[in-house]
Design a protein that fits this description.
Elements lengths: L2 H11 L5 H7 L4 H11 L24 H27 L4 H11 L10 H13 L5 H10 L1 H6 L13 H11 L7 H10 L3 E3 L5 E3 L9 E3 L2 E3 L3 H9 L2 H15 L6 H14 L2 H10 L16 H11 L2 E3 L5 H8 L21 H15 L3 E4 L6 E4 L5 H4 L6 E3 L1 H7 L5 H8 L6 H9 L5 H8 L9
Antiparallel strand pairs: 1-2, 3-4, 5-8, 6-7
Protein name: DUF1800 domain-containing protein
Pfam families: DUF1800 (PF08811)
């Protein structure tokens, strides 16, 4: 398999690849490489943090206002801890493709819960566990998760006063896409999901006295439907397979939809909604490796940071400042902007984030510091904090493992480094400038490469 294609593959299913791995994999054919990718991501390693503080918490504790306030404060701190742990997992994934798929599904089945770490930790691991499973089963599990029941108000969905939030987003954002259902479908679907709730510990509970047992008419079918029945009826719509195929294509292949490719994906996915089969089909398709799809995707902030880490491993001296970096770049784990999630592609880039992206490799890898205003509207990047004013501001510092970089790229020339770090076309002027500076130390040249606009693509 060609080196360029291996790079492209690992940029999309993970966060880049080292020269040593490219050399090893180049001796294999496409089928064997794809098989290996799925094999190494077959295992499921749940992401856990210390939540022992919840062990002695009882429902009655929430009736005490002061105790409740204190528990909420601890929970919010733990949610931030989980966000940091997730980021560190992304930088050092064992099951690479599973983690990339978890990131994808987190921006599809969007959910947020800042006041209960147990609920959101369980939810995140449901995404991880079902990343390659059956989409129908996956959707049913999501509908019953305590974090989602709270986020889209389905806990308040009762037969005498239906709440339509979850029913609407189920179709608009999770399964069919806008315009492929009616307002009546939303109302009837909401009735089917009445009574969904959970206990104090987050376990799903069906409140039968709040469930509407009367007949509902949904997509032309009539019956005493439950929430699971509604999802089964949605899955019968080929539009569901098409909507998910388009979402996956946009994320893993190209923002510009190729209808022929989508229909090929639909023919695979609609049969049994097996996510792994669909992803195997994509990665084995010849069109996945066409030039039009290589180096055309704008990296998300997390892909950008993880990609730098793959080339030059680094660690934050103060791990919680990971959240600050994510905020400055516009993507904070566990904090989606809204129920629709982050808009990808060109939406990642504006005048502020572009400047930050271009400067960040130097900041992260040169042990320089970044200071920022209290409002977060702007930041000044410096390597000298002698000013008392600057000292009062927070700053970020990292520990960089240049030894790993030197080991991985020991036999790589600066000119060869260009093609290893960039899979997209480079503007003639940029290439000329890079070649003029190709005699500088490899570390400096690497930082220079990651600080050009072309590095924003993968």
């Amino acid at each position: 398999m060609k080196s360029t294609h291996i790079q492209h593959l690992y940029n999309r299913i993970g966060f880049g690849i080292t020269p040593k791995e490219i050399t090893r994999l180049s001796k294999k054919n496409k089928q064997d490489i794809v098989d290996e990718i799925f094999s190494t991501s077959e295992k499921i390693t749940p992401l856990k943090i210390d939540t022992s503080f919840l062990e002695d918490v009882k429902p009655k504790d929430l009736k005490d206002r002061d105790k409740k306030r204190e528990l909420q404060k601890i929970n919010r701190k733990k949610v931030n801890d989980f966000s940091v742990a997730w980021f560190e997992r992304i930088l050092n994934p064992k099951e690479i493709f599973r983690e990339k798929m978890t990131l994808f599904w987190a921006n599809h089945f969007v959910c947020e819960s800042r006041n209960n770490i147990r609920f959101i930790e369980n939810y995140n691991n449901v995404l991880r566990e079902n990343a390659f499973g059956n989409f129908g089963d996956f959707t049913k599990k999501v509908s019953k998760e305590s974090a989602m029941l709270g986020y889209l108000n389905n806990k308040q969905n009762r037969k005498k006063s239906p709440n339509e939030n979850f029913a609407r987003e189920l179709m608009e954002l999770f399964t069919l896409g806008q315009g492929n259902y009616t307002e009546t479908d939303i109302k009837e679907s909401a009735r089917a999901f009445t009574g969904y709730n959970h206990n104090f510990y987050g376990k799903f509970v069906m409140k039968n006295k709040h469930h509407d047992e009367n007949e509902k008419t949904f997509f032309g079918k009539t019956g005493n439907f439950s929430g699971d029945d509604i999802i089964d009826i949605i899955l019968e719509e080929k539009q569901c397979a098409r909507f998910i195929s388009e979402k996956i294509y946009t994320y893993f292949v190209n923002e510009n939809i190729n209808k022929k490719h989508i229909e090929e994906m639909v023919s695979v996915f609609y049969k049994d909604y097996n996510i792994e089969k669909l992803m195997r089909f994509i990665l084995l398709s010849n069109w996945f490796y066409e030039n039009v799809n290589i180096g055309t995707k704008i990296k998300s902030p997390l892909e950008f940071l993880a990609g730098i880490h793959t080339i030059v491993p680094f660690n934050f001296e103060r791990p919680k400042q990971i959240l600050l970096i994510q905020k400055l770049l516009g993507q904070v784990l566990m904090r989606p902007p809204n129920v629709a999630g982050w808009q990808i592609g060109k939406n990642w880039i504006d005048s502020n984030t572009m400047v930050r992206r271009l400067r960040l490799p130097s900041i992260l890898l040169n042990s320089a510091e970044i200071t920022y205003s209290d409002t977060g509207d702007e930041e000044t990047m410096v390597s000298d904090l002698k000013s008392k004013k600057l000292k009062r501001k927070a700053f970020i510092k990292t520990k960089v493992d240049w030894n790993s970089f030197e080991k991985n790229y020991k036999t790589t020339s600066n000119k060869e480094l260009i093609s290893l770090l960039l899979t997209n076309k480079i503007l003639p002027g940029t290439r000329e400038l890079l070649l003029e500076n190709s005699n500088i130390p490899k570390k400096d040249f690497c930082i220079q490469l990651m600080s050009i606009p072309e590095y924003q693509l993968c």
